[in-house]
Amino acid sequence: MAKLxxxxxxxxxxxxxxxxxxxxEGLPTVGVDIRSEVLAKFEAEGGTTTTSPAEAxxxxxxxxxxxxxxxxxxxxxxxxxxxVAAARPNTIFALCATMQxxxxxELCERITDAxxxxxxxxxxxxxxxxxxxxxxxxxxxxxxxxxxxxxxxxAIATKIFRLGxxxxxxxQVKMINQLLAGVHIAATAEAMTLGAAAGIDLKTxxxxxSSCAGTSWMFENRGLHIVNGDYTPHSAVDxxxxxxxxxxxxxxxxxxxxxxxxxxxxxxxEASAAGLGREDDAAVAKILAAKGGVSLPNLPQx
Length: 302
Fold this sequence. Notes:
Elements (H helix, E strand, L loop, with lengths): L5 E4 L3 H12 L4 E4 L3 H9 L3 E3 L2 H4 L5 E4 L4 H9 L4 H4 L5 E4 L5 H13 L3 E4 L2 E2 L1 H6 L3 E5 L3 H14 E6 L6 H29 L4 H8 L7 H12 L8 H18 L4 H18 L7 H9 L10
Parallel strand pairs: 1-2, 1-4, 2-3, 4-5, 5-6, 8-9
Antiparallel strand pairs: 7-8
Helix pairs in contact: 4-6, 9-11, 9-12, 9-13, 9-14, 10-11, 12-13
Function: Catalyzes oxidation of L-threonate to 2-oxo-tetronate. Can use either NAD(+) or NADP(+) as cosubstrate, with a preference for NAD(+).
Protein name: L-threonate dehydrogenase
InterPro entries: 3-OH-isobutyrate_DH-rel_CS (IPR002204), 6-PGluconate_DH-like_C_sf (IPR008927), 6PGD_dom2 (IPR013328), 6PGDH_NADP-bd (IPR006115), HIBADH-like_NADP-bd (IPR029154), HIBADH-related (IPR015815), LtnD (IPR050006), NAD(P)-bd_dom_sf (IPR036291)
């Protein structure tokens, strides 16, 4: 059987990891990005590159869309040099960005109306798991499309949750994941700032809490960023302004109270307004530290 030909549109931290994982499994992969340095790096890894979504999909069997949001997804699918118009009939498009569930449903419908196939396929796991091919997929779509796409999906993920035969539920579940992720990042920032204010050594605090009931995946990951004073963006503040905004909007439409989402979203918005939007999302700790006159590693004394 011929190997699946794949394309990855958007070589950010998650898209990059997915594209490298596909190459590692021997699947021919075209990477698409607007950054020349990223394309050169991907070529050095053995991939093929282009800046044009239309060019990338001409021979593809499955196309992963790893851009930031619904608007960018629509643009690469249906805008100038859009992928859908250039693809072969029945090409599978996997929508991996976090977006409003209704946007995912609408985009998937437009894809299928154009003679293509669509998977609602949000991902989780962070840059490290993306690079090792160990992402978690929250997936919804036609079972036949999952069967066709299986070699590529297995290359990028170790856990694939099938959440329905039609698009929508994948994005609904991802929304809940992002609620928890955003709240846990905010809680991590609060805990580490309070620890610093109390005079606790932050590395000691990190080691202790990581072994106690209060830990979370986000604490163990982002807490170390605060300990090291390293706010290199793996996932930026502005991502959670978007994602928690989706949660808040959907919750309001459903009439469901989400007070922790509201508080966390306000903190991320404040950090973004302070010029931290492109820093690592753990940089919300800087806002709390500034307000409390607390010194954190690699930050000026407040």
